Amino acid sequence: MPTRREFLGNVAGATLGLGMLQTPAPSRRRVTIAGRRATVIDVHAHTFVPEVWELVRNTPLAAAAKNNLTGPIALGPGMAARLAYMDKEGIDYQAINVNAWGYSAARALATDLIQLQNEKIAEAVATHPDRFVGMATAALQHPDLAAEQLDVAVKKLGMRGAAIGGSVEGQELSDRRFDPFWAKAEELGVMLFMHPQQAPGTTENPRFQGKGGLGNTIGNPLETTVFLSHLIFEGTLDRFPGLRICAAHGGGYLPSYLGRSDARCRRGPGGDCPSKAPSEYFRRELFVDSMVFHPDGLRHVVAEVGVGQIVYGTDYPFDWPVGIDFILDAPFLSEADKGAILGGNLTKALRIAA
What we know:
- This protein is of the alpha/beta class.
- It contains 15 helices and twelve strands.
- The strands form three sheets. Strands 3-4-5-6-9-10-11-12 form an eight-stranded parallel beta sheet. Strands 1-2 form a two-stranded antiparallel sheet.
């Protein structure tokens, strides 16, 4: 028979256990617009595959990998934090993607690295198919291989697109050597999400030294601007009109100053201009995410490219003030506009059931 102390201890433990059982789980925000449920999809959601460490630990890529093996960005270890964040914010789906980081890898390593990353992303999506869709990685430094990798990722692993950088080891992606990759993306009809990475002349411009983190603050949008401008002016988008490319950070500076690019092509013979005004590519081929921070910035981008070309993005897990309410509180957006930006445009582009 238990003593009084043992009895009270058992009662206290049972009470504590009962309290724990009765504590409600953190609520999941359900976004509604005009009383109707809205699907929210985040196109700009970074991840990293920790298992790549064994492939790169004794290579020059180790430095880029070692700081992303744990924490909320890490696929696997960071999944609980990722889901908690999504529930709190009201995000129904993330299009999880690995920011381009291995473009210096030789063909053999690039083959193994991309295969591992894509398989692990596919496994994560299969575990939570109601919360994630996968964006493939591809070794763009080997364009024929990248085309094969994209084909396998989409057809066998169920990826909805791919994440790419803005250049490859200093070479512009408008170069004709990359045409096999563009052709495959067009053939598959998938969206490509372009995010800047370290690149000479933009993020690594020596003038960006000093305060303000200018390599990121200015350099990242600049890399995107240069990338898009080359695709337009070098004719890549004319050769592959079926491409669908979403550019991070509101498309960089280009959508905010499209008039200058258009004017360039109206001033003279235009022999070095594309088949249509640069701004016209933002009506079909080019999309941008909503990471523009100020309401007036969003209003201007809407005016320049149209609601149908803007999608929601957060830059998870990095803390930027671009939450869902940034879209919901925009007085110049209609209810239909808000639904389109938060998820409607991406349900079609990424083939997600609303």
